[in-house]
Amino acid sequence: MKKIQIDIVSDIACPWCAIGYARLELAMAQLASEYEFTVEWHAFELNPEHSGEGEPILPALARKYGKSEEEARATQNQMMAIAQGLGINFEKLQERLTCNTFDAHRLVKWAGEQGRQTELKQALFGAYFGKGNNVSSQDTLLECVEAVGLSSEKAREVLDSDQYARAVREDEANYQKAGVTAVPAYIINNKYLIAGAQEPDVLVQALREIGAD
């Protein structure tokens, strides 16, 4: 069976990244009889300078993108409807606070070595968008770690040190240098870029074309 490697550049704070992966899962399921997929997640921070207390997401987004809060709410409503259709919990999408995701990215790197990277990424999406939990808080991060069957003790050791910090920064620098300025971005077989949370049919077609190359 042919193999396809998918490197996903994304942020835990990016709702389109959660939607994009759910759509990619559907595409991979459609192609499961033709291809064997390997997925690896890479770090990107939408808000790398964030520190201290989080602020409500709607005014923060309105300010960042030069929109009104009503426009920000409308965009979030649209995402909530899409997520519902994909079976993703976005219940607290509009009630969450902004937060720093650097430590979460460090744990995703660590989880990759335990073969649980995608599971942890999804747990983090669920905690942030579904429950409105602060994914920069150690308690939330350890809850997600436990939920996917990993050791919270080992995860705490990672968080209390600077382990994987360099790996996360290298990821961010490498993909910025490669021209990734928005997420999600999928790099297929280290060669082709698919940008954005594309629909499953678009992904199926793109992956087939790449697989045939």
Describe this structure in words.
With 213 residues, the chain is an alpha+beta fold. It has one domain (2-212): Glutaredoxin (3-Layer(aba) Sandwich), CATH 3.40.30. It contains nine helices and four strands. The chain has a four-stranded mixed β-sheet with strand order 2-1-3-4. The chain is globular and about 50 Å long. 34% of the residues are buried.
List the helices and strands and how they pair.
Elements: E1 2-10, H1 15-30, E2 35-43, H2 57-65, H3 69-86, H4 102-113, H5 117-130, H6 138-147, H7 152-159, H8 165-177, E3 185-188, E4 192-195, H9 200-212
Parallel strand pairs: 1-2
Antiparallel strand pairs: 1-3, 3-4
- Overall number of strands: 4
CATH superfamily label: Glutaredoxin
Helix share, percent: 40-55%
Low-confidence stretches: none
Quick one: overall form?
Answer: globular
Average pLDDT works out at 97
Domain tally: 1
Strand order of the largest sheet: 2-1-3-4
Report the radius of gyration as a whole number of Å.
17 Å
The CATH class is identified as Alpha Beta
The appropriate CATH architecture is 3-Layer(aba) Sandwich
Instruction: Report strand %.
Output: 5-15%
Structural class: alpha+beta
The largest β sheet comes out as:
4 strands, mixed
Secondary-structure element sequence?
Answer: EHEHHHHHHHEEH
CATH T-level topology: Glutaredoxin
Q: How far apart, in Å, are the first and last alpha carbons?
A: 15 Å
Give the count of helical stretches: 9
From the structure above, extract its key features.
single chain; 213 residues; Glutaredoxin
